[in-house]
Amino acid sequence: MSTFDAAPVALIVHAHPEPQSFNTAQMATAAQALRDAGYRVDVLDLYSDAWAPVLGREEFAPVEGYFKPQAEQQRAVEEGTLDAAVEAQLDRLLAADLLVLSFPLWWFSLPAILKGWVDRVFVMGAVFGGDHGLFGDAALAGKRAMLLFTTGGPGESFRPGGAIGSMDDLLFHIHRGMLEFVGYQVLDPVITYGPARMTDQERAAALDTVRESVALVAAGPRPAVD
Questions:
Q1: Which among 60, 133, 151, 214 is most buried, taking Cβ atoms within 10 Å?
Q2: Residue 171's closest CA among 156, 193, 152, 186?
Q3: Residue 27: which of 115, 122, 150 has the closest Cα?
């Protein structure tokens, strides 16, 4: 097996509409840190790719009567009729040893385009349910995932007793309800607080911190190679 084949794969799913944003610069910094550590990095830019986030009945074979999205996902997996765009994304997801969700924190959660990616690509019957279980028995067990994001507010707002409250509490629905649910080991998030309020020098220092934080992630345990 070649060194290239043996390299772990990181999939970065990026969701920011502005290519010149600090958030996008943060994603690029993280991607380079992973490459420097020997990862093959696959970057999926949802806005650039004009990803359609809505999970609807039109992407499935005709359904008579009541439409249940997850049941139709599982049927599409079993019958080999998944929407081509979804199947391509699913293949990239399953090939990755590390998933990085890169985004600005909007309304204390994921931007709609990224939540829609999860809705459509975390396919029932392919990553959980059907022949797979949940959590430790789901299809992505043994793989790692992390959040890489920016906030509008300062760090002190996201602490226990702060104006917003504990960041751990805020992220529970993503960490537990999305990532751990399909089997991932969830790593500590990499967060830049309030970059819009920083000077250029402070933003440069923040990117250095991101680089160092992601390098530590990359240096952590990696999946065994057959």
A1: 214
A2: 186
A3: 150
* Per-residue pLDDT reduced to its tens digit, 133-174: 999 999 999 999 999 999 999 999 999 999 999 999 999 999
C-alpha 40/C-alpha 152 separation (Å) is 31
**Which residue's structure tokens are 């020997």?**
38
- Give residue for tokens 């250029």: 200
**Tokens linked to 59:** 């992407």
| CB-based contacts of 50, cutoff 8 Å, min separation 6 | none
User: 15-41 pLDDT, tens per residue?
Assistant: 999 999 999 999 999 999 999 999 999
Token reading at 214: 């992601």
Smallest CA-to-CA distance from 38 within 84, 122, 97 is with 97
The angle formed by the CA atoms of residues 39, 45 and 51, to the nearest 5 degrees, is 135
- Residue 175 φ/ψ, nearest 5 degrees: -60, -50
Answer yes or no: pTM beyond 0.85.
Answer: yes
**Inter-axis angle of helices 112-121 and 84-95, to 10 degrees?**
90
Tokens linked to 133: 């279980």
Q: Are 183 and 133 in contact (CB under 8 A)?
A: no
**Residue 171 has which token pair?**
């992220």
